[in-house]
Amino acid sequence: MRIPLLLVLTLLGLAGSHAQQTQIVYLSGTGANDTKTWDFKISSGRKSGVWSTIEVPSCWEQQGYGEYRYGHYPMQDRVQETGVYKTSFEAPQDWKDKSVRLVFEGAMTDTRVKINGKQVGEVHQGGFYEFSYDIGRFLKIGQPNQLEVTVTKMSENQSINIAERKADFWIFGGIFRPVYIAVSPKEHISRLAIDAQANGAFKADMLLNRFKKADSYNLIIHDLEGNQVHTNQGKIVSDSVRISSRVYHIKSWTSETPHLYTVTVKLKDEGKLLHEKTERFGFRTVDLRESDGLYVNGAKVKLKGVNRHTFHPDFGRTSSKALSIQAVKLMKEMNMNAVRMSHYPPDKHFLEVCDSLGLFVLDELTGWQRPAYDDATAKRLVKEVVQRDVNHPSILFWDNGNEGGWNPIIDDDFATLDIQKREVLHPWESFRKTNTIHYTDYGYLALDNYAKRKLFMPTELLHGLYDGGHGAGLEDYWKRIYDHPLGMGAFLWVFADEGIARTDRNGEIDLDGNHAPDGILGPYLEKEASFYTIRKIWSPVQLQHRYLTSGFDGRFRVENRFHFTDLSTVDFKISWKRFDAQGQEAQVTEAHQQKALPPGDIGWLELDLPQNWEENHLLKIDVMDKTGQTIVTYSFPVNKAEATWSQFIKPGGTTPIQENIEGNLIRVTTGEMVYGFNRTNGRLQRVKRNGKTIPLAEGPIFVSTEQKPESVTYGIDAEGHWKLTTLMEKSGDSFEWRLDTEGRLHLKVAYQPAKHTPYAGIGFRFPEEEVKGLRYMGEGPQRVWKNRMQGTQFGIWDKTYNQTQTGHSGWEYPEFKGYHANLYWMRLQTKNQTDFSVYAKTDDVFLGLFTPGQPEDARQAQAAFPDADLSFLQGIAPIGTKFHKTEELGPQSQLNQFRSANFFGGRLQMELVFDFR
């Protein structure tokens, strides 16, 4: 491919007023959705040995070249793929006597560059780092120039292969980040490193290239609205200049208030402008106080973070600013304030978005569980990281590798290179002031790890394989970390499933077994249930949980967990909702309130109760920021289940009941309904409506203990209702069916569950293949686990049947199958028009919908389900994580416990109403 001279001139914009600025000419595209076509040939694998074309930037696997490999694949079995790229560009006359640098933002993994057949510098080794070459002396000015780039997927440096290529992530090849030419005057500002403190103290190190004539500089600071807020000037006597100043009336940068500024430094010679350079920055102070905590601008901060790979199913590691914005917005939507770059420095635009939207960052040198980069390589690469990223106010810490993949020889190099002297972390290790232990058991959440005075911040806390971890268990862990004075925060593993759309398998999503499906979101950023749980637990506005009884006075205790924001900026939208018999909103009353409350304080939100507020079904409180974005939503059922169920019953008219015995079947008829019950055990065997079978059967079954019937009694009582009572052998447990004269079937159960059980309640059989969907009133629409109850909302929900296995297949959310909380009523929708409803007259009943598929390689990230298709439960199972059984997590992750002498008179009781009419 050839880049024409006219395009170069257009991109340069070499008008006189801009001639002293560094001009950028892209030889590639700018990202995943903006590429340019180069010539390409690969040495092995798919499409090897012949010249074709490729889009740049890209991972060559996604362009149909080479072979896919995950990092765990044995090193000795990997083929060395070498790709040769070719393109051409024109160098206009204006480039003569200029500094011309060819910049690669990232290429995996060893990169050799030639201009017009001549190698322009040393082979660059290291796949996630920006590097550049001075190519001025190799150019043919005013003529086409040939660029040839040879990229090898595996490095000749084995320490790089160990750090980058044998890791727990996908291994791609190619020029995966943009390539451009930077054109500057010979004498120019090559770097500007900034340290801007929250008190307005400003200093910068200015490094000059080919210092010769420059004798002075002018410095100008603007806010992002373009207002000039400060100027300064000084003399230049060497190629390294320290600029110091004080700026007044500034707005400081935080994750909640990401105020940014630009600084422009003009390099001059006797008043003549030689070159100018502009950098974006923020005023903020980071102070990691030993045995105390992390302070930003003087406020103690808790980091609520997630690990994030740069990844997209279609593009691999190639990204774009739009994708960065999407990712950061999703993190902010989860009320996160921090992100860890795992396990390599991200694209520049991702850091820019963290700066502008407000997200604290841990920037990381690559390394993973093995001996790190060799000394020379580590020193070279840490320099490339710090020099590129130093000015981002979002970056709080540097990570020197991950989980043993650190080289201690460079621990002090970060501070030497960094004007801000940020602290260094060893993720997974107790190091200097911090303890970043990974995946600790809850039982050992003493926050010491033999380091009692260290600041505790697991850089990997709960592993999110499939549907385990993340939201499941987080509330217990976070309460302990948040309440402890040395708890500095935590980072979940990981942001999104790293599933690649295989170009050799017609786009099939490949997660390499259980290696890559660890996300809070799916491969295309589908929101899983834990997304909403995290959002609730990490909300900076915390309302107390309470039940709305007749004595409700409209008061909620509210805690401001913002670090820098008063709640006066928050809008509480208060909605009272009433539903009709079809489950539609019949009446909504709305109001808005504000509440001034400083960061960290606790106060009271006092609602103005509407007249007859008890006649509503739902109180919903949406907490919104000043832009109108929802921070979190709280919802409260206004009445108990028993007081609500009758409001939704459709009158059916009174009809007489007839009983007939057909062998072992009791046949009971009323109006259009015919029911069949087993005479031996009392279970429902058959339901027909107008001659059409509704296939709910074989229930109730007590799911936590085996039960044998002792006696079954039945008949029509004095009120004309038909009753059947089954008493269980030895246990004394029982259930009672009552068919009223309107055709509704009532069920009461009294039972003693096992002392330690994953679930407790009753179940029925129903053919899953006949189900189309569900409408229900309860908590939703996401399913829950015993250790993941937060994040759902009370209301009326519609769900379509799906076969999604979280993180494994389907990716249609919310999942249909599983446990659903706080059931008030449900209507099961079927393909054969045999819909029916069930109403709960008992509070806190869980609805169990079938048994979700659970991948065989889920390890401990699985949950128990009763042997039933539809179940109505008073206890449900927790779920484990990849590395932890449920008993190793927190209190909410333990099995349900029942001690008959102390609970409910020795038995749990539940009452349901089945309406098949």
UniProtKB/TrEMBL annotation:
Catalysed reaction equations from the record: Hydrolysis of terminal non-reducing beta-D-galactose residues in beta-D-galactosides
InterPro entries named in the record: B-gal_small/dom_5, Bact_Beta-galactosidase, Beta-gal/glucu_dom_sf, Gal_mutarotase_sf_dom, Galactose-bd-like_sf, GH, GH-type_carb-bd, Glyco_hydro_2
Keywords: Calcium, Glycosidase, Hydrolase, Signal
Entry superkingdom: Bacteria
EC number in record: 3.2.1.23
Gene3D superfamilies in the record: 2.70.98.10, Galactose-binding domain-like, Glycosidases, Immunoglobulins
A Pfam family assignment: Glyco_hydro_2_C
Domain Beta galactosidase small chain/, first and last residues per copy: 727-840
The Glycoside hydrolase family 2 immunoglobulin-like beta-sandwich domain, residue ranges: 221-284
Top EC category: hydrolase
One GO-annotated biological process of the protein: lactose catabolic process
Co-factor(s): Ca(2+)
Glycoside hydrolase family 2 catalytic domain residues: 292-410
Statement: the UniProt record of this protein carries the keyword Signal: yes
Any one cellular-component term (Gene Ontology): beta-galactosidase complex
Signal peptide start-end: 1-19
Domain Glycosyl hydrolases family 2 sugar binding, residue spans: 52-182
SUPFAM superfamilies: (Trans)glycosidases (SSF51445), beta-Galactosidase/glucuronidase domain (SSF49303), Galactose mutarotase-like (SSF74650), Galactose-binding domain-like (SSF49785)
Record GO terms (molecular function): beta-galactosidase activity; carbohydrate binding
Family the UniProt entry places it in: Belongs to the glycosyl hydrolase 2 family.
Subunit details: Monomer.
Protein name: beta-galactosidase
Organism whose genome encodes this protein: Sediminicola luteus
Classification lineage: Bacteria, Pseudomonadati, Bacteroidota, Flavobacteriia, Flavobacteriales
